[in-house]
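Schema walk-through. Below, the input block comes first and the output block second. Nothing else is stored per chain. Lengths vary across the set, and this one has 216 residues.
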Amino acid sequence: MPREPASLADVLADARVWKLKDASAAPTRPVWSTGKRALDARLPGGGWPTASLIEVLLDDTGMGEVQLFLPALVECQRRIGQGRTEEGPWLVWIAPPYEPYAPALAQQGIELGRLLIVRPASATEALWAAEQALSSGVCAAVLLWLKGTDDRWLRRLKLAAEASGALGVLFRPERHRFESSPASLRLAVSRGVHETRIDLLKVQGGRPGPVDLSSA
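--- output ---
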């Protein structure tokens, strides 16, 4: 089972999560496949870029947005954890709208013992927790759900992800689509007639526009 939802006090008290990474070990900058060939082909390097902030704009939550990142989460846990003598990297989910279903995640290959769910009391605490997790050096990926935030916080999250090499993902409502954002990659996810529709809004080094997942 994934860990019980944690308070910020619990997170801060867990030295295993916030221990400093060996400064002599330079962070890697891998790219994790999305599991969809058509989507990989449109992204720089062929997958979700690490050491960056990805912004996902949603019509509504629960549209399979986590499924878009599950192949990457499984792969980063497996590959980053290989050859380590200590425990593998953490996955941190902050303020998810629904309780993660542990059996399904385990079946997909997620290492539940290294999955931390944080339930902050406010948006400010959620942003602070995300920045700390991204900066910690022990998290492979940090997923954050928010209804809104300002550009200053987005830049802080981006800088934290770039410094540590982590994959940072921010889920926000689609109404933020026409706002400026420092995120390296922005995409909109909406309900299509037969399947989820993905539109790449901003892709540094890639091609924006709709993605045909039927060919994936």
